Amino acid sequence: MTKFLTRIIRLALVALLAWGLYVAGSIYSFSLQDETRPADVAIVLGAAVWRDQPSPVLTERLNHAISLYRDGLVDAIIFTGGLGRNDLLAEAEAGRDYALAAGLPAEALHVEVASTNTRENLSEAQQVMQEAGFSSALVVSDPMHMKRAMALAGDLGLEAYSSPTTTSRFASTPSQLWFLVRETAYYSGYLLGY
């Protein structure tokens, strides 16, 4: 009985490892894709704010969205994300202020401050799109985040295209590996319906 249980446990661990490697591989492969094209709006997925300033991760997402606007690929930007604990500004507000300081016109900048995760970022952004009459979007985030973000956008029925940052702050091998492991867990949860 002990040998049988040991074999079952080993098989389960091998299956779990194989699943994790498969999911991680699909996330990494998707992270290399860039679907950037003309669209009505860019949706910047939220990331941390440090009190009232965008974190380095959020800053790179903002820079990418600003470039999309300046290059004429989008007519507007939607900043997403609510107020984090101990912060003075919501993620979306910090993003809007950053874009205003970069010289973008206020009328091209939209915010939603109710969301607390990627699914809510996209759902709230979809409401902003509907109210403003936008029909297509470029989703902006870090490359390793894009597979899950685009799956969630698809679930919502958004006409959305992946536009990952090219200057992610997750540039070192350890930070990329950490992000990949985290996204493997989150995306596995998504696939399993959590």
Which descriptors apply to this entry?
alpha/beta, elongated, 6 helices, 194 residues, five-stranded parallel β-sheet, Rossmann fold, 52% helix, two-stranded antiparallel sheet
SSE map:
Blueprint: H1 2-31, E1 41-44, E2 49-50, E3 53-54, H2 56-70, E4 76-80, H3 91-101, E5 109-112, H4 118-132, E6 136-140, H5 146-156, E7 159-162, H6 173-191
Parallel strand pairs: 1-4, 1-6, 4-5, 6-7
Antiparallel strand pairs: 2-3
Helix pairs in contact: 1-6, 2-3, 4-5
Oligomer: single chain
Report the mean per-residue pLDDT as an integer: 92
Indicate the proportion of strand residues: 5-15%
Distance between the termini: 34 Å
- Order of strands in the sheet with the most strands? 5-4-1-6-7
User: Could you say how many structural domains there are in total?
Assistant: 1
Radius of gyration equals 18 Å
Largest sheet: 5 strands, parallel
The CATH homology group name: HUPs
Count of runs of 4 or more consecutive helical residues:
6
State the helical fraction: 40-55%
Order of helices and strands: HEEEHEHEHEHEH
The CATH topology: Rossmann fold
**CATH-level-2 architecture:** 3-Layer(aba) Sandwich
Pairing-aware structural class of the strands and helices?
alpha/beta
CATH class: Alpha Beta
Q: Report low-confidence residues grouped into runs of 5 or more.
A: none
Number of strands: 7
Shape: elongated
